[in-house]
Amino acid sequence: MLIEGGKVEQVKESVHLGNLFTNDDKSDKDIERRVNAGNEVNGAFLAIMNSKSVSQSVQLAIKKNENRINAVEILSLRSMCGVSLKDRCRNSDVRERCSLKKDVVTRIERGMLR
Fold this sequence. Notes:
114 residues, mainly alpha, two-stranded antiparallel ribbon, two-stranded antiparallel sheet, elongated
Protein backbone atom coordinates (compact mmCIF):
# COMPACT_ATOMS: atom_id res chain seq x y z
CA MET A 1 0.00 0.00 0.00
CA LEU A 2 1.30 3.47 -0.86
CA ILE A 3 0.45 6.57 1.18
CA GLU A 4 1.87 9.88 -0.03
CA GLY A 5 4.44 8.03 -2.08
CA GLY A 6 5.69 5.93 0.86
CA LYS A 7 5.25 2.20 1.16
CA VAL A 8 3.21 1.17 4.24
CA GLU A 9 3.06 -2.39 5.50
CA GLN A 10 -0.42 -3.82 6.00
CA VAL A 11 -0.85 -5.74 9.27
CA LYS A 12 -3.65 -7.90 10.68
CA GLU A 13 -3.75 -6.05 14.01
CA SER A 14 -2.23 -3.01 15.66
CA VAL A 15 -2.43 -1.33 19.07
CA HIS A 16 -2.87 2.45 19.07
CA LEU A 17 -3.50 4.50 22.24
CA GLY A 18 -4.36 1.31 24.13
CA ASN A 19 -6.94 0.09 21.60
CA LEU A 20 -6.48 -2.98 19.45
CA PHE A 21 -7.45 -2.47 15.81
CA THR A 22 -7.88 -5.48 13.53
CA ASN A 23 -8.35 -5.72 9.79
CA ASP A 24 -11.75 -7.43 10.29
CA ASP A 25 -13.13 -4.60 12.52
CA LYS A 26 -14.08 -6.99 15.33
CA SER A 27 -13.55 -6.01 18.95
CA ASP A 28 -13.39 -9.53 20.45
CA LYS A 29 -9.59 -9.59 20.63
CA ASP A 30 -9.47 -6.08 22.15
CA ILE A 31 -11.96 -7.05 24.85
CA GLU A 32 -10.08 -10.28 25.56
CA ARG A 33 -6.78 -8.36 25.77
CA ARG A 34 -8.26 -5.84 28.22
CA VAL A 35 -9.83 -8.55 30.39
CA ASN A 36 -6.52 -10.42 30.50
CA ALA A 37 -4.70 -7.21 31.50
CA GLY A 38 -7.24 -6.68 34.30
CA ASN A 39 -6.82 -10.28 35.44
CA GLU A 40 -3.05 -9.78 35.64
CA VAL A 41 -3.51 -6.73 37.90
CA ASN A 42 -6.04 -8.56 40.06
CA GLY A 43 -3.62 -11.49 40.30
CA ALA A 44 -0.91 -9.14 41.55
CA PHE A 45 -3.27 -7.75 44.20
CA LEU A 46 -4.22 -11.27 45.27
CA ALA A 47 -0.55 -12.17 45.61
CA ILE A 48 -0.06 -9.18 47.91
CA MET A 49 -3.20 -9.93 49.89
CA ASN A 50 -2.27 -13.58 50.38
CA SER A 51 1.34 -12.86 51.27
CA LYS A 52 2.10 -13.34 54.95
CA SER A 53 5.44 -11.55 54.85
CA VAL A 54 4.78 -8.13 53.36
CA SER A 55 7.64 -5.77 54.07
CA GLN A 56 7.13 -2.57 56.04
CA SER A 57 8.08 -0.49 52.98
CA VAL A 58 5.23 -2.10 51.02
CA GLN A 59 2.84 -1.43 53.90
CA LEU A 60 3.90 2.23 53.95
CA ALA A 61 3.54 2.52 50.17
CA ILE A 62 0.02 1.11 50.40
CA LYS A 63 -0.93 3.56 53.15
CA LYS A 64 0.63 6.49 51.29
CA ASN A 65 -1.25 5.66 48.07
CA GLU A 66 -4.46 4.34 49.65
CA ASN A 67 -6.75 6.85 47.90
CA ARG A 68 -5.11 6.33 44.53
CA ILE A 69 -5.30 2.53 44.83
CA ASN A 70 -8.99 2.69 45.74
CA ALA A 71 -9.66 5.12 42.86
CA VAL A 72 -8.04 2.77 40.35
CA GLU A 73 -10.01 -0.14 41.74
CA ILE A 74 -13.37 1.64 41.52
CA LEU A 75 -12.65 2.89 38.00
CA SER A 76 -11.86 -0.69 36.97
CA LEU A 77 -15.01 -2.02 38.61
CA ARG A 78 -17.15 0.68 36.99
CA SER A 79 -15.65 -0.15 33.61
CA MET A 80 -16.26 -3.89 34.05
CA CYS A 81 -19.87 -3.31 35.16
CA GLY A 82 -20.57 -0.70 32.48
CA VAL A 83 -21.39 1.99 35.06
CA SER A 84 -20.19 5.51 34.28
CA LEU A 85 -19.90 8.47 36.61
CA LYS A 86 -22.85 10.01 34.77
CA ASP A 87 -25.02 7.16 36.08
CA ARG A 88 -24.62 8.69 39.57
CA CYS A 89 -24.17 5.27 41.17
CA ARG A 90 -22.36 5.14 44.52
CA ASN A 91 -19.01 3.35 44.76
CA SER A 92 -20.46 1.07 47.44
CA ASP A 93 -23.24 0.05 45.02
CA VAL A 94 -20.68 -0.71 42.30
CA ARG A 95 -18.69 -2.88 44.75
CA GLU A 96 -21.91 -4.66 45.73
CA ARG A 97 -22.66 -5.40 42.05
CA CYS A 98 -19.22 -7.03 41.86
CA SER A 99 -19.84 -9.02 45.07
CA LEU A 100 -17.16 -7.09 46.99
CA LYS A 101 -17.86 -5.89 50.52
CA LYS A 102 -14.68 -3.91 51.19
CA ASP A 103 -12.31 -1.78 49.15
CA VAL A 104 -9.02 -3.21 47.91
CA VAL A 105 -6.84 -1.52 50.56
CA THR A 106 -8.94 -2.97 53.37
CA ARG A 107 -8.70 -6.41 51.76
CA ILE A 108 -4.92 -6.05 51.44
CA GLU A 109 -4.61 -4.99 55.09
CA ARG A 110 -6.69 -7.95 56.23
CA GLY A 111 -4.49 -10.26 54.19
CA MET A 112 -1.39 -8.83 55.85
CA LEU A 113 -2.84 -9.42 59.34
CA ARG A 114 -3.38 -13.16 58.74
